[in-house]
TrEMBL record:
It is a multi-pass membrane protein. It comes from Boletus reticuloceps. The lineage of its organism: Eukaryota, Fungi, Dikarya, Basidiomycota, Agaricomycotina. One of its GO terms (molecular function) is pyrimidine nucleotide-sugar transmembrane transporter activity. This is Nucleotide-sugar transporter-domain-containing protein. Keywords: Membrane, Sugar transport, Transmembrane, Transmembrane helix, Transport. It is found in: Membrane.
């Protein structure tokens, strides 16, 4: 059997899953805080944050790909900075990034840009914990697209789990819908008012792009020999143009595009972007070393974390329906991830790309 990629003996699969769970809760809370702690007029530009995210993630992926690439030279011992070898690395890197099938990444790239923008709408208009629980519906869309595109077969208990997931999310929504939707985040952060319906619609749309883009990326990655980091560079490169479009549409200020773009871009905005960059890199690793469905499990773990922090930080008022809905979501996620006795997770559908 091929060696399991690991760091100090711990498989990368588990390291990336656990780190993703922590990253997810951090992002939910910090993104929400970065949006609601100040009046909307002083808020930073979400499309700018999305663009910055892609630029940083692409650069980091490029650096990793550069270091990891095999320049086809025999004398590997300690000669990293040898100029001729660097040239070889660069040539090889260029060939791999501009491979004939690089266009495949344009589809998930566009979807992720839409999703990353929608995420800001959702985080601005929903309680951090409500957003987190509703966002679990992406397990549902991921499963649907896995069945459609990867022709993955789901067991009866997994279908039951998906049914309960939908119910659980619905129950959590009851309390949001019935409550005063424009309630401010807390007494401390009375800047922005929230619109629960707008936030919920954004979450639903983001769940669709998440499922489709994730499954598509998994399909591209596992159906070819190309390196994960090369694929990430291609993904970020194709994201740049769609990430620029909302900026060009929304920013018409006289003070110059670039200046207005990074207006109000303070520490919290940078923190949000940094955590999102980390999340993108982790997501890619999780899709490579496990799959999209295990990823759903990791993010549902993060519900519990954000839930507790939200109560402490945002004066989040816990209601019976919220607890009931969250418990249903967690049980459904657990049930979904129970290994099935009748089938293995086959990868028959990959050849359709
Ligand atoms: O919630 P979900 O798992 O769908 O979020 C995926 C996130 O990870 C998106 O923000 C997307 O931009 C990012 N991503 C990435 N590189 C990948 C796959 C996803 O940066 N290869």
């Amino acid at each position: 059997a091929p060696p399991v990629p690991s760091l100090r003996g711990v498989p990368l699969k588990y390291i990336s899953l656990v780190t993703l769970a922590v990253q997810n809760s951090l992002l939910t809370i910090i993104m929400h805080y970065s949006r609601v702690s100040i009046p909307p007029s002083q808020s930073y530009s979400a499309p700018a944050a999305v663009l910055l995210n892609e630029l940083l993630k692409g650069s980091i992926s490029l650096a990793i790909a550069f270091v990891q690439i095999d320049p086809y030279t025999a004398d590997t011992a300690g000669r990293f900075w040898n100029p001729s070898k660097i040239l070889l690395r660069m040539r090889r890197l260029g060939r791999e990034v501009f491979s004939s099938d690089c266009w495949k990444l344009s589809i998930p790239a566009i979807l992720y840009v839409i999703q990353n923008n929608l995420q800001y709408v959702a985080a601005t208009n929903l309680e951090a914990a409500t957003f987190q629980v509703s966002y679990q519906m992406k397990i549902l869309t991921t499963a649907a697209f896995s069945v459609l595109l990867l022709r993955k077969q789901l067991s009866a208990s997994q279908w039951v789990a998906l049914f309960f997931l939908a119910i659980g999310v619905g129950v959590v929504q009851i309390q949001t819908g019935a409550g005063d939707s424009a309630r401010t985040a807390s007494l401390l952060f009375q800047g922005a008012s929230m619109n629960a319906l707008k936030g919920f619609l954004a979450v639903v749309a983001a769940c669709f792009t998440s499922g489709l883009a994730g499954v598509y990326f998994e399909m591209v990655l596992k159906n070819s020999q190309s390196d994960l980091w090369i694929r990430n560079v291609q993904l970020s490169a194709f994201s740049l143009l769609p990430a620029l479009i909302p900026i060009l549409i929304t920013e018409h200020s006289q003070s110059g595009l670039f200046q207005s773009l990074f207006q109000n871009f303070g520490a919290w905005a940078w923190a949000t972007v940094a955590i999102q960059v980390l999340g993108g890199l982790l997501t890619a690793m999780v899709i490579k070393y496990s799959d999209n469905i295990l990823k759903g499990f990791a993010t549902s773990l993060s519900i519990v974390i954000s839930f507790l922090v939200s109560m402490a930080l945002f004066d989040f008022q816990i209601t019976f329906t919220f607890i009931l809905g969250s418990v249903i979501v967690l049980i459904a996620t657990w049930l979904y991830n129970q290994p099935s006795r009748t089938q293995s997770s086959s990868r028959v559908g990959y050849s359709i790309l």
